Amino acid sequence: MSVRPGALALVAAALGLAAGAAGQPPDLATGERVFRDNCAVCHGAAGDGRGMAAHHFKSPPRDLTKGRFKFRSTASGQVPTDADLARTIVLGIPSTGMVPQNHLSEAEVQAVIAFVKSLSPRFAATLSPKVVTIPPPPAATSEAVARGAAAYVKGECAECHGKDARGDGPSAKDLSVKPSDLTRRPLKSGAAARDIVRTLLTGLDGTPMPSYDQVLEGDELWALAYWLAARGGPPESTDDERAGWHVVKMHQRR
Question: Rounded to whole angstroms, how far apart are CA atoms 222 and 48?
C-alpha cells in the first residue's frame, strides 16, 4: 500500500476538525463534490457501487447505500465511526481497489464522511455506535503464539479458513463470500496484531466472518492474532489493487 508521509496524521487531524465542528451542520455540498470527483468513478454517483469503473474489479466496489462496512472498530452489526471512515478513506484498504485518498485535505475528508453517512439511513438510526474494547495485549512470546494455534481450533476457524489458514476450509466452497487466505499479506484490516484482534471482536459485516467477542477470551484473541501474524508471507499486490491505481490514473487524465 502506498501512503504518503503524514497520512495517519491527516486522519487524526480530520477527526479533530470534525470534533471541533460539533453542533454545526455537515457540509454536504462540499462532501458531494469531493465524492463526485474522487469516489463516484467506482462507487457510482448514488453510492450504489455501480460506477463507470466498477467492471474493472473482481470484488465490486461497496454499495454505500446499505451502510454496512467490514472494517470498523464498532460492535457486530453497527455502523462505523467517523474515525473508521476516515481511516478507510485516507489509508485505503490494502489488496483491494480502494486505494488511499491521501491527497484530500482535512476539510474534504470531514465533508466526504458526512456525505457518505447521508447515503444510508443506518447512520441516522445509530447516532452513537458502540466501539469494542480491545483487551490489553500479553507478551508476544513463543508460548503465546503456540496458544494461538489452540485458539484457532477452539474458534473452529479451520472450517472456513482451512487447517493452514489459506482460505480452503471444507465450508469455503459453499460461501458466497470466500474466506480470506490469512497467510497472504497485507491483510485488508491492517498489519498489526491489534488490527487482527479488532477484526476478531467486530466480525466483518456482510460476510460469514462472525464476531468472536463471546467465543474467545481476551488472551486467546491476542494469542490467535500473534499466531496469524507469524504465518504471514511477503506483501503481494493483487489484480484489484492494480486496477484501483489504474482507475485513479485514468480519472486524473480526464
Answer: 36
Instruction: Write down the mean pLDDT value for the chain.
Output: 92
Decide if pLDDT at 32 tops 60.
Answer: yes
Cα–Cα distance between 3 and 97 in angstroms, integer? 14
Compute the half-sphere exposure of residue 75: CA atoms within 13 Å on the CB side of its CA.
Answer: 8
Q: Answer whether 0.85 is exceeded by the pTM.
A: yes
Burial class (CB in 10 A: 0-12, 13-18, 19+), 228: buried
From 23, 40, 8, select the one nearest 115 (Cα to Cα). 40
Query: What are the chain's domains?
Result: 7-131+240-252 (1.10.760.10), 142-230 (1.10.760.10)
Residue 2 has pLDDT above 80, yes or no: no
For residues 1 and 92, the answer to whether their CB atoms sit within 8 Å is yes
At residue 94, what is the residue type? P
Strand partners, 185: 235
Which pLDDT score, from 0 to 100, does residue 252 have?
A: 82
